[in-house]
Design brief:
The complex is a heterodimer of chains A (86) and B (205). Chain A is mainly alpha-helical and 86 residues long. Chain A is 72% helix and 0% strand. Chain A has 5 helices and no strands. The longest helix of chain A is centred in the middle third of the chain and has 23 residues. Chain B is mostly helical and 205 residues long. Chain B is 61% helix and 0% strand. The longest helix of chain B has 23 residues. Chain B is elongated and about 70 Å long. The chains are: A mainly alpha (86), B mainly alpha (205). Chains A and B meet through α1, α4 and α5 of A and α2, α3, α6, α7 and α9 of B.
């Protein structure tokens, strides 16, 4: 018999649930909770979507890579290399 | 696995032919490396560091480390991912050296619950990410939300969800315990849900 977990417990351990780090019994409790809790189903979808949105935003909104960087930066790097190699 | 966006390098100058010349310390090879790779590395550094000067410092430091260690790496090393990793490390080191600005508490962005453990309000639903990402403004909006996270949480999202570093490596870079990586990442994701639903939510409140 599984116990009924609260929404707070569901959200607190949601990453463990998604990563399947919970003990089988606890995982089943989370499944039971989801089957009877539309708000947590909505939260689960938002959580997963926010990860996808975050990845997409951070990796694909840089815009095109510029063809060059400020010449001062190039010269500073080369000077640092010469100094280190001297 | 480190995410690496391929960058167009000098035509005809592949890693296999460049690496021996770099390891020999040929000046033109070193300059070629800087000129062809720095633009992409600066783009990566800017993801972590908001100040342009800081981002450029991180790129410079990455090259300094690269030049110091280039003799010790295998000739077969793929240069792009290697430099990418170095600039990520340099950016995080730079971030950790900067004075902390006062930032909002993450707790203010986390979901709230009634005493009996139920949600205070029903979490709003939003359109699937696959649909949202078709909208031209969404990436910029999401990025703005991520920028509102406390610095440590924002950096964690970058390292774990964008750079795909594991918890051990992330903990090492940030100088925190692995358990803290895990809990802070979960907090960051919850906070991002809260920030996104302010704009994207269409459910009842």
């Amino acid at each position: 018999v599984t116990r009924w977990i609260t929404c707070r417990e569901f959200v607190d351990f949601l990453d463990d649930y998604l990563a399947r780090r919970l003990e089988p019994t606890h995982h089943e409790e989370f499944n039971d909770h989801l089957s009877g809790c539309p708000p947590c189903v909505a939260y689960l979808h938002s959580y997963q979507d926010s990860i996808r949105l975050g990845k997409a935003a951070l990796t694909r909104s840089d815009g095109p890579v510029p063809e060059s960087v400020p010449e001062a930066l190039v010269q500073a790097i080369l000077a640092a290399q010469r100094k280190a190699g001297a | 696995v480190v995410t690496y966006d391929p960058v167009a390098s000098s035509p005809g100058l592949d890693d296999a032919s460049l690496m021996p010349r770099l390891q020999a310390g040929e000046a033109w090879a070193l300059e070629t490396l800087v000129r062809t790779r720095a633009p992409q590395l600066l783009t990566v550094a800017r993801r972590f560091l908001r100040d342009e000067r800081d981002a450029q410092d991180a790129v410079q430091e990455a090259f300094v480390v690269a030049f110091k260690s280039i003799h010790a790496i295998e000739e077969r090393t793929v240069i792009g991912p290697w430099l990418h990793r170095l600039v990520v490390e340099a950016a995080v080191v730079k971030l950790r050296s900067l004075p902390r600005h006062s930032e909002g508490a993450i707790e203010d962005l986390l979901p709230t619950f009634l005493e009996d453990g139920h949600h205070v309000r029903r979490p709003p639903a939003w359109e699937p990410s696959s649909v949202l990402l078709e909208r031209p403004d969404v990436r910029e909006f999401v990025r703005a939300c991520i920028d509102r996270l406390p610095e440590t949480h924002r950096t964690l999202l970058l390292l774990r969800d964008t750079e795909n570093l594991d918890a051990t490596e992330t903990a090492r870079l940030l100088g925190i315990e692995e358990a803290a990586v895990k809990s802070c990442l979960h907090q960051a994701r919850q906070a991002l849900v809260g920030l996104l639903e302010e704009q994207l939510g269409r459910g009842e409140s």
